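User: Round two. Same drill as before: sequence, then structure, for each protein.

Assistant: Same drill it is. First protein:
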Amino acid sequence: MSEETEAPGAPAPPRDEPAAGVEPALWLVDGFNLLHAAVLRGRDRRDWWRASARERVLALVRRLEAPGAEVIVVFDGQRPPDEPERTHPQVVFAASADEWLIRAVRQAPDPSRIALVTADRQLADRARHRGARVVGPIAFRERCGGAADA
């Protein structure tokens, strides 16, 4: 099921949660979750782990207008040997993207200045519990100017 259409009785998916006009200083992006929910949108996943799929996510993230904010995209797995180091956005590969993201929220001096982009309900709940705001992938894609087929 997509983020926008859920089964009756299912918990509401993560939505954009703005905080009293304060823009996030740090955007944390669950890379493969964004790929699935807002870039591929149910289309063929044969190329899921390829560099071209990650690049589509990064192309979308680069369109985020968040002057002065740090942006980190986290993908599950090991960094491929041919993957370049990136600074905008910063790209991290982790054994568990979810655990890396929660650790970043937990270690932040002010989690209320963090926006976590994910549709993973468990991850979203854990981040909210620690004070971060959650932005769903569809809301994030819209904030970045719409279609993710860049």
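Second protein:
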Amino acid sequence: MTVARLTLAVLAVFTGIGCGALHVVPSSAQPPKAGSNSVLIRQPFEEVWSRAIPQIGKSFFVINNIDKSSGILNVSYTGDPEKYVDCGTIHSEFGNQTTDFPASKANEQWVGPSGGILAANYTQHVTLDGRMNIVFERVLSDSTRVTVNARYVLTRKVVALVGSNPPVATEDEASFNSGGEANLGKSVCMPNGKFESEALAIISPASTDSSTR
């Protein structure tokens, strides 16, 4: 098999070029409901703000910028995309081997069709760089609304190896905001809402009378 044919086979998986028993099954999940990225905390701004900074600092989020005058806290997350993003399922069939796994899975290796009679050994690596603005608004003297808006940047690299041919790599990137979606090759990716809900859970105390918008 030539490198050109192998390249075409790799592209077929994630861009729809060519054919073969290797494709993406779209997700049946629904995007988070409108307003699920906001919470009303029955506490004054100063109390909510002063508690949020150390709580966020103790979490897995990285604090990038703090602007109390604007009520904006910017944080980021780099790591496993499968936890926060749904891109459907990759389905592969070759001979008697069938493989299914989340398209947003950070690392995966499998054997699938190459576009010819030989099998291809595939390796996938997906990364997520997420940034979030956490906005604190004074509603009343004893109430604060906290709203989170995230920006997701996904990168997926797939390397295919057939026999003694040189490995062929393809790379795709997609970016979208909270409540949005974007194509990552043949996959349609969207946030599952956990990034936003986990940030709100860190800020909102369990004992507080909180309600979503």
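The first helix runs from residue 3 to 15.

User: Perfect.
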